[in-house]
Amino acid sequence: MKTENVSRTVLAAGVGAVLAATALLYLPELAGQGPPRPPGPAERAVIAAHAGAQAALPDLAALIADRETWLRAHPDDEASWAELGAAYTERGSRLGDVRDYPRAERALSRSLAERPAARGNLEAQLGLGALAGARGDWKTAKEWGERVRKADPRRWPAYPVLIDAYNGLGNYKAAQKAMESLEELHSGAVVRGRAAQTYRDRGWREDADAAALDAVALAQSDTDRAASLARLGDLAWERGEPDEAFARYGAALRLVRDHGPSLAGRARTLTALGRTEEAAREWRAALARLPLPEYFLEAGELYESLGLEGDARALYERLRTAGRPGAEATLGLLDADHGDPAAAAVRMRAEWARGHRSVRVADALGWALHRSGASREALGYAKLATEEGLRSAPFMYHRGEIERALDQTGPARRHLMEALRINPEFSPLHARRAEAALAALGELPDELPPELRPEPAGGPAGGPAVPTASGTRPG
Fold it and tell me: What is the dihedral of CA 67, 70, 75, 76, to 10 degrees?
């Protein structure tokens, strides 16, 4: 749910980085002579791509139209096919429209047909890596990214593709190394945004916020600045500061009034602030603008918390029938809580077997196993999700509930309290359940359990105390 939103923002920046790899291509209309003139929409998209920034959506559409027109007359231009494929992928990821992904695949495949990978068509390979990442196919994204890095280690747009892929596979050390390589090769808002994501994933909240603020300052367009402000809003939300998050999302929406991630973020914070009618309206606007799976689940759970069961079921069904690639963790949580938990466990086991072992997948698998009655097995995955570094209230809640089911009252109390400490309003549905679970556990007992009580000063009867580095133990 909320832990995915920063990743979505960063993924769009990663696709923009792939566009930057092909943006050095000339636009056909620039070939003529004459005095300089202000750049047109397609040219502005190319300029944004040079910086690895997000282009305005109308400019991106103009670039796509320009490339389509050019390629009708020049079908053997492999570089323009690669640029068109990257632009389709970026538009699809930013609009949540998977219909652009087959178009991207066709364009990128045509680029490779005109100039195969063996002959150095790195732009098409980068595009295929970004496309695989947009589809949630992290293994394939890694393969394409590694091919490009091997061929040209200094080609910086390869590293955002690899960072996403390694994060999706749960290889956080490799993601960190790729981030360090990116910082050595490139700078600007896209790199600082990536750094914010990396710090967040490691639990370094202050560093993440500082890097995200840098990204806002370095952004060169309203579109890029709005994306950076939305990232700041996500970070504030995740640490339980809805007022601050609301202000940051509002600033983004003043720059780009229909910015999808900011509409969703504002809906989320309005819920936390108790303005549920406004939140419901904002969710409708967010879903119309950017119909992402996690947004359907969050909006549905708001409606369910308000007793609007029919509206909630309608959103859950839309999520189930959307057929969106890369939504397995969200679908697993959906079925675990609002459908068939056994089916959710099967789905998430398959995702884990694919090598997709991120903390999101570990959390969803653990929760699905718990909800299907396998709490003991679930606990191992819940520990993986909560011990990697990311501080997530939903992950802590899931772990606490699993431990409560196993009668591990001390750990359960600690992790439920931590969930509510991180963000007391992390979910309109589950935050209240966390409070109820914590109340059911009761107050922390005054006396320690026998196994934790200290030995008497002289040691137990029958032998002297033996000193150790940490105190005493029986002789």
Answer: -90
Residue 465 is inside which H or E element, if any? strand 465-468
Backbone angle region of 449, left / alpha / beta, with phi > 0 → left and psi within -120 to 50 → alpha: beta
Distance of CA 308 to the CA centre of its chain: 28
End-to-end CA distance of the chain: 53
What's the full length of the chain, in residues?
A: 475
Of 389, 328, 403, 400, the C-alpha closest to 359 is 389
How far are the Cα atoms of 44, 252, 352 from residue 232, in angstroms, in the given order?
25, 10, 30
Per the CB < 8 A criterion, the answer to whether 167 and 7 are in contact is yes
Token pair of 163 as six digits = 């960072």
Whether the CB-CB separation of 425 and 271 falls below 8 Å is answered with yes
Distance (Å, whole) CA 335 – CA 232 = 30
Give dist(CA 167, CA 193) in Å, integer. Answer: 15
The residue among 323, 321, 322, 341 whose CA lies nearest residue 332 is 341
Phi-psi region of 69 (alpha: psi -120 to 50; beta: other; left: phi over 0): alpha
For residue range 152-183, what is the model confidence (pLDDT) as tens digits? 999 999 999 999 999 999 999 999 999 999 99
Do the Cβ atoms of 293 and 332 come closer than 8 Å?
A: no
Over residues 195-215, the mean pLDDT reads: 95
**What are the backbone dihedrals phi and psi of residue 127, each rounded to the nearest 5 degrees, phi first?**
-60, -40
Q: What is the pLDDT, as a whole number, of residue 453?
A: 56
E-state strands within 264-348: none
pLDDT digits (tens, 9 = 90+) for 8-47: 444 555 565 666 555 544 444 444 455 567 888 888 888 8
Three-class secondary structure of residue 104 per DSSP: helix
Of 177, 173, 181, the closest CA to residue 152 belongs to: 181
The confidence score (pLDDT) of residue 454 equals 60
Task: Report CA 21 to chain centroid distance, whole Å.
Answer: 23
The two three-digit tokens of residue 454, written as one number: 């200290």
Instruction: Give the largest CA-CA distance in the chain.
Output: 101
Do the beta carbons of residue 328 and residue 2 sit within 8 Å? no
Q: Which residues share a beta bridge with 468?
A: 471
Give the Cα separation of 286 and 5 in Å (integer).
Answer: 13
pTM reported for the whole predicted model: 0.86
Asked whether 168 and 352 are in contact (CB, 8 A), the reply is: no
Write the DSSP assignment of 293-342 as a string of letters.
Answer: HHHHHHHHHHHHHTT-HHHHHHHHHHHHHS--TT-HHHHHHHHHHHS-HH
Q: Are 337 and 364 in contact (CB under 8 A)?
A: no
